[in-house]
Amino acid sequence: MKNFDLPIKVEAIVYYIDDNKIRNFLALKRSLEDGGFWQPITGTLEATDSIEDCLIREINEEIGLTKEDILSISDCIYNFKWNKKSIGEIYEYVFAVEVRKSSQIKLSDEHVEYKWGIKDAIRDIYEMLDNKIAMDKL
């Protein structure tokens, strides 16, 4: 995987492939205190992290899956830049992460609901434009 300059955020578009070879994607609904919108897994890279370590940590923190649940992590499929007034420019890099179909989701306190669905259905419930664009890039 490519090296990235800090500060950055990562996004994991998590999916599994069922017996019919259909990809089923995950969407998480944030708690009302955190905006109440649907999104993929996101997190911030720490100085000691590799991209892969960060993705695995965020997947574990947000949905309770471990490295053993992860089958593959793609190269970066999309990246974008956004501004946060208190910090400045933040770069976000998006990866597709395949997990085992049998993986059991356990949500963190950040999220109140999750949903699996085909690509177009999940894309439609994501609220942020960049999340939708990332799905289009898959």
Could you describe the 3D structure shown?
The protein is of the alpha+beta class and 138 residues long. It is 21% helix and 39% strand. It is built from three helices and eight strands. Strands 1, 2, 3, 4, 5, 6, 7 and 8 form an eight-stranded mixed beta sheet that branches. The mean pLDDT is 90.
* Gross morphology: globular
Helix content: 10-25%
Strand runs, count: 8
Low-confidence residue ranges: none
Rg measurement, Å: 14 Å
| SS-derived structural category | alpha+beta
Salient structural properties:
138 residues; alpha+beta; 8-stranded mixed sheet
Provide a short characterization of the protein structure:
With 138 residues, this protein is α+β, with helices and mostly antiparallel strands. It is 21% helix and 39% strand.
